[in-house]
Amino acid sequence: MMSQEITKIIEENVTAEVFGVWFLIGAALVFLMQAGFAMVETGFTRAKNAGNIIMKNLMDFCIGTVVFVLLGFGLMMSENYIMGFIGAPDLTIFTDFGAFLEGGKAPSFVFNLVFCATAATIVSGSMAERTKFLSYCIYSGVISLVVYPIEAGWVWNSQGWLYKLGFHDFAGSAAIHSVGGITALIGAVMVGPRLGKYVKDASGKIKKVNAIPGHSITLGALGCFILWFGWYGFNGAAAWNGSSLASIFVTTTIAPAVATCVTMIFTWVKNGKPDVSMCLNGSLAGLVGVTAGCDAVDALGAAVIGIVSGVLVVVIVELLDLKLHIDAPVGAVGVHFANGVWGTVAVGLLANPKAPAGLSGLFYTGSFRLLGLQTLGITAILVWTAAAMTLTFFIIKKTVGLRVSEEEEIKGLDKTEHGLPSAYADFVPAVENLDYGYPQALAVTGDIPAAEAVPVKREPAFSDGSPKFTKIEIVCKESRLEPLKTAMMELGITGMTVSHVLGCGVQQGKPEYYRGVQVEANLLPKVQVDIVVSKVPVRSVIETAKNVLYTGHIGDGKIFVYDVENVVKVRTGEEGYDALQDVE
Prior knowledge:
The chain has about 575 residues and is an alpha+beta fold. The chain has helices at about 1-45, 50-75, 90-95, 95-100, 105-125, 135-155, 160-165, 175-190, 215-235, 240-270, 275-290, 300-325, 330-350, 360-365, 370-400, 405-410, 415-420, 480-490, 540-550, and strands at about 80, 85, 200, 205-210, 470-475, 495-505, 510-515, 515-520, 525-535, 555-565.
């Protein structure tokens, strides 16, 4: 008997130790989500603001850590909770660090800190490309200092009033995503739309909505995959045993996968093609939707959550943009606000008594009690957050200002706010002024000895009877470049210049859709091939090009012919006819 009791104690201690390690691993996975948010927001916005986006996501965590350790954690998880609404900070982490560790508060501090940073960083995308960096830093400090800690304490502190009532938000659909989402909505409204997003007529009425595509769908996709990976820690870190952890992993996989499929089909049917960026949002919407009830729903419930999330994210994103004219570049309102609310309410509808949480949803038991609690909880959280953040943004707007100047916005926040010519240094639109220690090029002049220059045959200055030089400019489809190049080489052309260009003719472009907004693609990608000939007959080049490029459809291209005064080969100094000939 004694041996069984000892074995039980050992098993309990080992289980607690393993859980503690997994809890901290989960916190690390949630921290990794900061990188995911940074990549999604950077990819869905323009390159001239990429550095600013990265900086804001970095400071969300760093500023959040400073204020959370000073006051936020105490307001949220203090053991001295005032009337179930707010904690009384004791600053034990500074005054008695040993007691702080022995009391088991350290894991809770780390985990709640990364959750807090997640709530703060959701807002970055909706206010991107036109918000002052200083103003954003102030906002980030406020939401991490008081707004998030107070409402999160209601939900997760055992003395919080929502916790005592039985409100269920396992990993934060309400406490994190709805909070970040409604703040994103308020911020987007108060800072106003990006320049050029909405075109007004003489009366001031919006007559046209312009799509402003992000600069890198690849970065957006990378961010989505990082977030999905981190979400297994986000939802699963608080699982107390292996069976509940496995259940959470299952529901956290099913909901976003179903949501993405639904979004793909929905946008495909609606716009004629599946929308890549919206499908990425669909994945995140499904993850947000299942977060509150990941431990309370079964596989069917997770699928239902995913179906609704996949449609809801598209409807809300397009409603904001096309009807309400609220500019939220990344889709944070549709992903986090709408689906945070849906996920919270879904617990009251879809919670299965046989799931690890053992809750009774309306569709399984016919009881409205849990649905009522979920509705009450999400309403209270949204009212508190909306009031606090509206006041915060109003004060910022009236003091330091929320928005950069029009000139700064056009130039890009990378340059004006951070002194970065571009976040992509190799593509800075300026002549590089660096000394690489490379030997200076040797100029070829008539005075250079024969040992240092290729012997050249001088052509006389231009006069009557000089060879004629002609430039042939061919604009064609990209797909026809290789056949054209091969045909020109066979004709005897020794050189050509190829450029990627944009243009339109009779075709007048082709409309496409980006996040539900029509993109007027009246400039189509083309290839321009420049050839200068003298020996090769111009008519032969033209006829060969026509034969190679002809398909009989609009958009085959154009051929332009110009006279050229002279040609100079830099390496040898040859001019005129000889400069166009191949090396013997």
